[in-house]
């Protein structure tokens, strides 16, 4: 082996990978093309399991990772939707760094691989989707920004400089952005992801579905992308050369490998009946389209036959294997990365990691209602803690979770904080329902009696993986079973203030609770991870002032009665309303970006209005636009961004004043709104955000610099990326501060 070029550290990874692949026979090559690569002992190539998961902590989903006596658990952070609500980019990256450290530690003791198929960067198009918990919400810019930071946290080797050749950049672990693309129907009213054909316009593809993946590749330099089960416009995503070779590798200049969602090729054959392909046909189709690795056995079982029958070149296999082995070399699989050699089990579940899990939960919690300053709770003799989620543990973890370092349930957290702070003399606990499904009302009476006898009542309700999950979309947005009855009857019986804590992934229609005067405060705590109970208690008793904002719109249930989940357009179509805050301005329970605090903030835009005159390039043409008012528009309505250098930036400074009596965190959210009357343009779009801490009575200046073409563009119906002329607006938060920006050509 010393004479093998693939073992020579002085050579480039590409040269070494080629030497390795060239030494393999066809039989040996195909056995490396599934997630459980067999290895080749005759040349010293070890076996390798590609499938590990790390969505919000090292998971034991997938055969690549396991827990045992040497490493019994890992830090489990809140599910992504709650972490996203923090709108804290440094937190997102820091979580990735911790997860990758624990992953490296588990790899070093033989409990994990180095390739982790996370994060999920699909956009929440429909509130019924069962996998809302895995994503960063409904805004493609937020999802892409989350992905970029989390991927950088997972992959970046501290201190390593970016080389001229990205394929030689070392990796701490390998991250994978999934599921590409237009995937957000799992199982709804008889339609499932194994048969669904997503009919998507190029406008929506470019603007919404693909944007987080593009950011993940271009900004995050992710080393893997996973294609999805569904078809897009008739073609399975894993067999579409335009999506894989053309877009990911071509347009985005991707450096890594493309993997299928597990058994996706089999799904093409048995579910989609794609071209009536058999195993070798489907394997040849996907390989030629650009799929490098099969999570499953279709490649190992069928690729040799496909080559021998002339359906695909053996060189196509070589190409994919080269991509795979370059990634493994970047990971140090063959050589080790010295700075991670000493990382071990003592680096898993450290106090610092557990503290970060608690911080992530606190920062994500959203205060939705707080009438009369009911929160934070002050001294309470008797506290009733009621509800099916009041004493949960595993339900706080969500899916793709491993075994946690420890659990702190809401009941334990409230009891502990109450005793330590000496603010609660006695805690009364009643479950109210057996579980989240709340199939009967047999336990509600005892819950009512507890509330009658308490000075304050905290109700914990919501959903769990039996209600919304992978392969389980919701059919409505109501709380499950008898939970609404439980809330109303307990609130009616309560002697003191009622605080409602919603633990869910997606939004729920709680308009009844919002309108109920007996329910003084409402918190959304998502599925807050292993430290969720402490984080919730810290917020309720005032140790932490909540500052999270909703990363999704909370619709009224009547919204989902107006359109099927399978209707893919984002813009209103016929009688169907638009989707997400960008294209829907109807009634909601709570809008995207909503969240209040125990203090009050005001905004001041200290920048002046901007007016930019663009000089068109030689032979650059103006582009027409459709206006709802035919008399609107200028002589040069828009330019195509691809034809422009776009070096213009607009600097904006926002002063955030804390006019309350408590220190607090505020998320400054900046939107752009296009000139009025452009047909199909978004109502507004988020272009920047930053979380800041502002002391009581003080102010903080927050600076943004916006590239004109990235921040004020629109995608038209022909899928052109345009910069319209005219008066755009910059909006801060809920239009509390506005600034006009004009472009002309």
Which features does this protein show?
alpha/beta; six-stranded mixed sheet; 745 residues; globular
Biggest sheet descriptor: 6 strands, mixed
Average predicted local confidence, pLDDT: 96
- Rg, rounded, reads 27 Å
Helix coverage percent of residues? 25-40%
> Tell me, what's the shape?
globular
Low-confidence stretches: none
Alpha-carbon distance between the two ends: 65 Å
- Percent of residues in β-strands: 15-25%
Please tally the β strands and state the result: 31
Describe the structure.
It is a single chain. The protein is an alpha/beta fold. 27% of the residues lie in helices and 19% in strands. The protein has a six-stranded mixed sheet with strand order 13-18-17-16-14-15, with helices on both faces. Strand 17, helix 17 and strand 18 form a beta-alpha-beta unit. Helix 10 crosses helix 11 and helix 15 packs parallel to helix 16. The protein is globular, with a radius of gyration of 27 Å. The N and C termini lie far apart (65 Å). Keywords: Glycosidase, Hydrolase, Signal. GO terms for molecular function: alpha-L-arabinofuranosidase activity; xylan 1,4-beta-xylosidase activity. It comes from Rubroshorea leprosula. One of its GO terms (biological process) is arabinan catabolic process.
């Amino acid at each position: 082996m010393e004479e093998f070029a693939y073992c020579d550290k002085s050579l480039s990874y590409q040269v070494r990978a080629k030497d390795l692949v060239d030494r393999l026979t066809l039989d040996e090559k195909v056995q490396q093309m599934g997630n459980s690569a067999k290895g080749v002992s005759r040349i010293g190539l070890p076996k390798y399991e590609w499938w590990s998961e790390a969505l919000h902590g090292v998971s034991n989903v997938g055969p690549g990772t396991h827990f045992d006596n040497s490493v019994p658990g890992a830090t489990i952070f809140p599910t992504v939707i709650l972490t996203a609500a923090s709108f804290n980019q440094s937190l997102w990256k820091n979580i990735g760094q911790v997860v990758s450290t624990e992953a490296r530690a588990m790899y070093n003791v033989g409990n994990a691989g180095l390739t982790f198929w996370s994060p999920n960067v699909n956009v929440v198009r429909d509130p019924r989707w069962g996998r809302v918990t895995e994503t960063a919400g409904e805004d493609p810019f937020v999802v892409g920004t989350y992905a970029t930071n989390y991927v950088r946290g997972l992959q970046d080797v501290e201190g390593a400089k970016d080389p001229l050749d990205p394929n030689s950049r070392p990796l701490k672990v390998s991250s994978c952005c999934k599921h590409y693309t237009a995937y957000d129907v799992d199982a709804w009213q008889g339609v499932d992801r194994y048969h669904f054909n997503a009919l998507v316009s190029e406008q929506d593809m470019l603007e919404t579905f693909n944007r987080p993946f593009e950011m993940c590749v271009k900004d995050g330099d992710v080393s893997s992308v996973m294609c999805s089960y569904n078809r897009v416009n008739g073609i399975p995503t894993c067999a579409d050369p335009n999506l894989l070779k053309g877009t990911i590798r071509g347009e985005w200049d991707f450096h890594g490998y493309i993997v299928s969602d597990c058994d996706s090729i089999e799904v093409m054959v048995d579910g989609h009946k794609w071209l009536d392909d058999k195993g070798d046909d489907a394997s040849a189709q996907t390989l030629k389209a650009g799929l490098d690795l099969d999570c499953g056995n279709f490649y190992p079982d069928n690729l040799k036959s496909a080559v021998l029958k002339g359906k695909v070149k053996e060189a196509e296999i070589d190409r994919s294997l080269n991509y795979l082995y370059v990634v493994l070399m970047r990971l140090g699989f063959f050589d080790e990365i010295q700075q991670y050699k000493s990382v071990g089990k003592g680096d898993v579940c450290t106090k610092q990691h557990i503290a970060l899990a608690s911080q992530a939960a606190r920062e994500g919690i959203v205060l939705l209602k707080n009438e009369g300053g009911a929160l934070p709770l002050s001294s309470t003799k008797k506290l009733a803690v009621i509800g099916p989620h009041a004493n949960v543990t595993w339900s706080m973890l969500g899916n793709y979770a491993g075994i946690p370092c420890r659990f702190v349930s809401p009941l334990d957290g409230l009891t502990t904080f109450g005793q330590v702070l000496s603010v609660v003399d006695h805690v009364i606990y009643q479950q109210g329902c057996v579980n989240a499904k709340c199939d009967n009302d047999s336990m509600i009476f005892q819950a009512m009696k507890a509330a009658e006898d308490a000075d304050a009542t905290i109700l914990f309700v919501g959903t769990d993986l039996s209600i919304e999950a992978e392969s389980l979309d919701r059919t409505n947005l109501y709380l499950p079973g008898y939970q609404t009855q439980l809330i109303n009857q307990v609130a009616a019986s309560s002697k003191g203030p009622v605080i409602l804590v919603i633990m869910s992934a997606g939004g729920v229609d709680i308009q009844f609770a919002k309108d109920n005067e007996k329910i003084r405060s409402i918190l959304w705590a998502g599925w807050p991870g292993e430290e969720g109970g402490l984080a919730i208690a810290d917020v309720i008793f005032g140790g932490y002032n909540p500052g999270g904002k909703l990363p999704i719109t909370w619709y009224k249930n009547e919204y989902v009665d107006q359109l099927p989940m399978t209707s893919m357009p984002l813009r209103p179509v016929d009688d169907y309303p638009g989707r997400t805050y960008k294209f829907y301005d109807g009634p909601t329970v709570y809008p995207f970006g909503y969240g209040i605090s125990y203090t009050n903030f005001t905004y001041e835009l200290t920048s002046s209005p901007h007016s930019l005159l663009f000089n068109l390039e030689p032979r650059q043409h103006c582009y027409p636009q459709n206006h709802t008012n035919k008399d609107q528009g200028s002589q040069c309505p828009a330019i195509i961004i691809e034809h422009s250098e776009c070096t213009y930036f607009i600097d904006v400074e926002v002063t955030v004043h804390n006019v309350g009596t408590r220190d607090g965190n505020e998320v400054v959210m900046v939107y752009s709104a296009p000139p009025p009357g452009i047909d199909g343009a978004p109502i507004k779009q988020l272009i920047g955000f930053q979380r800041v801490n502002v002391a009581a009575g003080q102010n903080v200046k927050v600076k943004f610099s916006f590239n004109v073409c990235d921040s004020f563009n629109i995608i038209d119906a022909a899928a052109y990326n345009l910069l319209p002329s005219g008066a755009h607006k910059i909006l801060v938060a809920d239009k509390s501060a506005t600034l006009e920006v004009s472009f002309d050509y």
